[in-house]
Design brief:
Length: 401
C-alpha cells in the first residue's frame, strides 16, 4: 500500500481514489464510514448516522455485535479456509443449526458465497432433479446478477445489454396472480422460483394464499417450489422464514444476506430426497462454507434464536407500520406495506427526495423500484431510533403539505 494512504480521513480523498481505480458501476453517496456500533454508523470525522439500510438487509445484529466480533476473532486465529476437499467441522455445525430452525423435511444445506450463487445452485438442482428445463418466475422479481439468476429476474432493466448470455427458459407471471401462476406451470416446468415478499421490486406482499397456490400447483405438476429467502429469511419478516406466514413448506430455500451478518455467505437448503440429485462433482464452490464464515453464520443464527429477534421484528414491525400509516394519509404516500422489519413506503413523487432529506439529517434509508422507501434495519433496532425516524418522516411530510 502506498505510504500515507492508510488513514484517509476525508471523503473527497476516498472518492478521488474510487473514481480513479474502481469500476464505476455503483452510484454512491458522498460519505465513507469508519466504524459502526449497533444501529449506528460513524464517518471518519465522528458524525453519527442512523442506519436503516443495514447493508441492504444484511446486518441483522447491527454493527460490531459482540458475539460476532468474538467469533470472528477467535476463528480467524484458528483456521480460515481449507476447501471442500476435506471435512469441515464448522460447516457441519452451521448446517445442523440451520436445520434446527427449518421444518423437519428441510434438513440438507449447501453453502456458497452469495444469494445469486444460492439461486443459481437451486435452479441447477431443480433441473437435475426433474430432468426438465423450464421455470416460472414473477415479474418485478430480483434473484441475482449471475447468468441463470438474472434470467430468473423479472425486471428488464437489470437484463438490458446482457441478453446474449441469458436463458430463454423462464416464463413470467404477475406476482400475486394465482390464476396466472396455475396456468403457467406445465409438464415441462422444473420449478417455480419466487420471493415470498418482493424486495428490490418494492416490498410487494402477495395475497395470503398465493404461496399455498404455488405449493399446490407444484405438487400437481411434480415441479419444485423454490423460495428465494435471501432478503426475507432469518427473522426479517417476524418469522424465521417468510414462508411460515403461509403455512407451507417449499422444496428448496435460498438464503444469504442476514446469514453472515455482514460476512459473505449463501446457502441452499432442501430435503434429503431432493439433495440427492447433486452427487459428488455435480456442483461446488471453492470458498463456500469455509470455517471462518460458517462460524460467524452459526453465531448469527444462534443469536437470532436465543434473543428472540423474530418476535422482536414482528412486534416492533407491526407497531411501526401502524405508526407510519397514521402519519401519511393524503400526503404523497400511496401505501405503507410489509411484514416485520421489512417495510416499504410507496411515495411515487417523493421517495428520492425523502432519501436525500433523511441523508442530510444523517438517517440512512434506501429507495427501491424508483418510488418505494425501503426500511430494512438491524433487528436490534431501538425504540428511540423508530421515534427519531417517525419524527423526521412527519417533518418531511409537513414540509410538503
Amino acid at each position: 500500500m502506498v505510504e500515507g494512504r492508510r488513514n484517509l480521513v476525508r471523503v473527497e480523498e476516498v472518492k478521488h481514489l474510487s473514481e480513479t481505480f474502481l469500476f464505476q458501476n455503483y452510484s454512491r453517496e458522498d460519505v465513507c464510514f469508519e466504524r459502526g456500533k449497533g444501529e449506528m454508523l460513524y464517518d471518519p470525522e465522528g458524525n453519527e448516522y442512523l442506519d436503516l439500510v443495514a447493508g441492504i438487509a444484511v446486518n441483522v445484529l447491527g454493527h460490531s455485535h459482540p458475539a460476532v466480533v468474538k467469533a470472528a476473532c477467535e476463528q480467524a486465529g484458528r483456521l480460515v479456509h481449507v476447501s471442500n476437499l476435506y471435512q469441515i467441522r464448522e460447516q457441519a455445525l452451521l448446517a445442523e443449526a440451520l436445520a434446527s430452525t427449518m421444518p423437519p423435511s428441510l434438513c440438507r444445506s449447501m453453502f456458497v458465497n452469495s444469494g445469486a450463487e444460492a439461486n443459481e445452485a437451486a435452479l441447477k438442482l431443480a433441473v437435475k432433479k426433474t430432468g426438465r428445463g423450464r421455470f416460472v418466475s414473477a415479474r418485478n422479481s430480483f434473484h441475482g446478477r449471475t447468468s441463470a439468476s438474472l434470467s430468473a429476474t423479472g425486471q428488464p432493466k437489470y437484463q438490458a445489454g446482457f441478453e446474449p448470455l441469458l436463458s430463454r427458459s423462464f416464463d413470467f407471471v404477475d406476482f400475486g396472480d394465482a390464476e396466472q401462476l396455475k396456468a403457467a406451470v406445465t409438464s415441462e416446468t422444473a420449478g417455480i422460483i419466487l420471493e415470498p415478499i418482493q424486495g428490490e421490486g418494492g416490498i410487494v406482499v402477495p395475497p395470503a394464499d398465493y404461496l399455498r397456490t404455488a405449493r399446490d400447483v407444484c405438487d400437481e405438476k411434480d415441479a419444485l417450489l423454490i423460495l428465494d429467502e435471501v432478503q426475507t429469511g432469518l427473522a426479517r419478516t417476524g418469522r424465521m422464514y417468510a414462508f411460515e406466514h403461509s403455512g407451507i413448506v417449499p422444496d428448496i430455500v435460498t438464503l444469504a444476506k442476514a446469514l453472515g451478518g455482514g460476512f459473505p455467505i449463501g446457502a441452499m437448503v432442501s430435503s434429503d430426497e431432493v439433495s440427492k440429485a447433486f452427487s459428488s462433482g455435480t456442483h461446488g464452490s471453492t470458498f463456500g462454507g469455509n470455517p471462518f464464515v460458517c462460524t460467524i453464520a452459526r453465531t448469527v443464527v444462534e443469536t437470532i434464536v436465543t434473543d428472540g429477534l423474530d418476535k422482536r421484528a414482528r412486534d416492533l414491525g407491526e407497531r411501526w407500520i401502524s405508526e407510519l400509516r397514521s402519519l401519511s394519509p393524503e400526503k404523497g404516500v400511496t401505501e405503507v406495506r410489509g411484514k416485520g422489519l421489512m417495510i416499504g413506503i410507496e411515495m411515487p413523487e417523493a421517495a428520492k427526495e425523502f432519501q436525500r432529506y433523511a441523508f442530510e439529517r444523517r438517517i440512512l434509508v434506501n429507495v427501491c423500484a424508483g418510488k418505494v422507501v425501503r426500511l430494512v434495519p438491524p433487528l436490534i433496532l431501538s425504540e428511540n431510533a423508530v421515534t427519531r425516524f417517525n419524527d423526521l418522516f412527519a417533518a418531511f411530510l409537513s414540509s410538503r403539505s
